[in-house]
Amino acid sequence: MMAKMKKVREVLRYEVFDLKTGKVLKRGRYELHSFTRNFYRFMYSRHLAQQTVSLVRTNGSSWSLSISSGYSPAIKAPAKDDTYGMVVGTGTTAESFDDYKLEAKIPHGEGDNQLYYDGQTASATEDETNNKHIITEERNFYNYGSVDITINEIGLILRFYYKFLLFRSVLSTPITVPAGTGVRITMEITIPYS
Questions:
Q1: Using one digit for the tens of pLDDT, what is the confidence trace for 161-186?
Q2: pTM for this prediction
Q3: Other C-beta atoms within 10 Å of 74: how many?
Q4: Do residues 104 and 90 make contact, with C-beta atoms less than 8 angstroms apart?
Q5: Cβ contact 52:125 at 8 Å
Q6: Which contiguous run of DSSP H or E holds residue 127?
Q7: What is 134-181 written as a DSSP string?
Q8: Which of 136, 147, 125 is nearest to 185 (CA)?
Q9: CA 13 to the chain's CA centroid
Q10: E strands of 19-69, at which residues?
């Protein structure tokens, strides 16, 4: 009997912590729901290996993606790189299926109104007991500046020769990252089956 697909679930968890002591100051959790057209087109092209699809790059221009092009996709960005992987911003405009970038990305850096982007980790597991696949993305962001920073939006950018926004969500309640603290953001995508 063929497995029946259930609803994909996207959860974001965060911990704000003191940079000197590591003590967790605040925790939170959100249900997310904002894959973009780029995500669906990318998945479509991966499924049909020779299929070419048009994706919108983070600079707004279009690019025809062909899986046979020989490029390898990457989502785990290294430290100091805010051009792909998990990214954060201050934008508050509601999500759109056609989003191709964050509204107002917070840049990497160690000054005021910047966050230090740590290296990203990613894992994928299968929970056969509970019939689900779990994809986990995690990244730390540090506020070395002298002013608090408010995160209103979260994105996930794929590097596949160019960069493409796969996911953007505006948080129902912003995450405040005070000066001298960091925030660990974990995005978990659960794909259940039965």
A1: 788 888 899 999 999 999 999 999 99
A2: 0.86
A3: 16
A4: yes
A5: no
A6: strand 121-127
A7: EEEEEEEEE--SSS-EEEEEEEEEEEESEEEEEEEEEEEEEEEE-TTE
A8: 136
A9: 12
A10: 24-32, 52-56, 62-66
Q: For residue 99, count CB atoms less than 10 angstroms from its CB and return exposed for 0-12, middle for 13-18, buried for 19 or more.
A: buried
Q: Which two tokens stand for residue 176?
A: 């405040």
Look at residues 153, 135, 47 and name the one whose alpha carbon lies nearest to residue 96: 153
pLDDT confidence of 36, banded at 50, 70, 90?
confident
Let me know how long the chain is.
194
Closest of 70, 82, 51, 192 to residue 132, by C-alpha: 192
User: Does residue 69 register a pLDDT over 80?
Assistant: no
Domain ranges within the chain, ordered by starting residue:
9-192
